[in-house]
Structure formats: C-alpha cells, structure tokens
C-alpha cells in the first residue's frame, strides 16, 4: 500500500500537473454553450424566463425583473385588476417553484411588438403554453398571453421586465 501511495505522489509531483482532486476550471466553454440568454437582447429575457421556470430557479427569475416590476392579472370573479410588486412576485414564484414537480413553458408567436432600434422601452405581447405538474395526478395547463413591458437605462444595457399583465385562462 505504501508503494502505491508513493507512486501516485511521485506521478503528481513529477508530471507537473495540478492536484487531481482540485482541477482547474474549464475555460474552453464559451457563452454560446450557455443555456441562459443574453439579456442585451429581448429574446434573451424570454429565454432566461423559460430557464428559470424549467429549473425552478428564483435567482435566474429575479434577474429578468426590474426593481420597479409590477405584475397584473384580472380577477374575473371580482371584476377587478389585481397587482403586486417585485418582492411579492419573487415570493409567490419561489413558493410555486417549491411546491411543484415540473414547469414546462413554451413561448409561441409574438402577437405584438413596438420596439424601435436603440429604444429604451418595448412592449411585447406573446402567446404561451404552460404545463404545471404538481404530481402525476395533478397537472394544470395554462394558455394565454404575456403582455410585457421591458426597459433598459440606455442602449446596450440589459433588458428587464417592468410590467407583466397576465392574460391567461388561469
């Protein structure tokens, strides 16, 4: 046994390699292989939103929301719009992420878009399908439109959602 340990130690020392139990970070992976989108582009916000749902990751989710974010939905039973801010949205979505088995979000057609080149604000209405799996016997399907307002401070900055009006069947 002593000989084996000595041989392993000699190989490590004389081969010039680093500690095999603490390998270096692989820097060959480029950003093009990332599952996250580039939020300098609006498509990157949609991609990151989808990944946040797929991985149930509230950190990624929080990065797509602006500090002044507002969520709005229609309470048809009461006939009023209900809204809340970013903190409530993060807390509500975190609770959803913790209490489900799976979320499958499919972004479909962009119905409306009013973004100009180098603009600081865009409104996009996009169709989506969401499947929420609470358990194998409890699956909810939601279809509708996400009506988003996105903003950035200046051209070249990251886009973030400032307003989301949920126009779904849920």
Which range does the strand content fall in? 35-45%
Q: In sequence order, what are the helices and strands, one letter per element?
A: HHHEEHEEEE
Q: Counting H and I runs of at least 4 residues, what is the number of helices?
A: 4
CATH topology name: Nuclear Transport Factor 2, Chain: A
Q: Helices and strands: which structural class?
A: alpha+beta
Q: Provide the helix percentage.
A: 25-40%
> What top-tier CATH class fits best?
Alpha Beta
How many domains, in number, for the residues? Answer: 1
Strand order across the biggest sheet?
A: 2-1-6-5-4-3
Characterize the structure shown.
- This protein is an alpha+beta fold.
- The protein has a single domain (38-168), classed as Nuclear Transport Factor 2, Chain: A (Roll).
- The protein has four helices and six strands, in the order αααββαββββ.
- It has helices spanning 2-15, 42-55, 58-64, 86-98; strands at 65-75, 80-85, 102-113, 121-135, 138-151, 160-168.
- A six-stranded mixed beta sheet has the order 2-1-6-5-4-3.
- β5 and β6 (160-168) form a beta hairpin.
- α2 packs antiparallel against α3.
- The radius of gyration is 23 Å and the shape is globular.
- The protein starts with a helix and ends with a strand.
For the structure shown, list the relevant keywords.
alpha+beta; 6 strands; six-stranded mixed β-sheet; 170 residues; Nuclear Transport Factor 2, Chain: A
């Amino acid at each position: 046994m002593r000989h084996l340990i000595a041989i392993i130690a000699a190989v490590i020392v004389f081969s010039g390699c680093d500690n095999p139990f603490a390998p270096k970070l692989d820097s060959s992976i480029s950003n093009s292989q990332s599952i996250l989108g580039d939020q300098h582009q609006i498509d990157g916000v949609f991609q990151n939103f989808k990944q946040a749902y797929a991985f149930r990751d509230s950190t990624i989710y929080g990065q797509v929301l602006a500090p002044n974010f507002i969520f709005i939905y229609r309470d048809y039973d009461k006939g009023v719009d209900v809204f809340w801010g970013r903190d409530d949205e993060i807390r509500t979505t975190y609770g959803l992420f913790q209490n489900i088995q799976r979320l499958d979000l499919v972004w479909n057609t962009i119905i409306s878009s009013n973004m100009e080149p180098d603009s600081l604000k865009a409104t996009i209405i996009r169709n989506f399908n969401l499947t929420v799996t609470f358990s194998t016997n409890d699956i909810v399907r939601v279809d509708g439109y996400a009506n988003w307002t996105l903003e950035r401070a200046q051209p070249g900055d990251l886009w973030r959602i400032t307003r989301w009006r949920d126009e779904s069947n849920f």
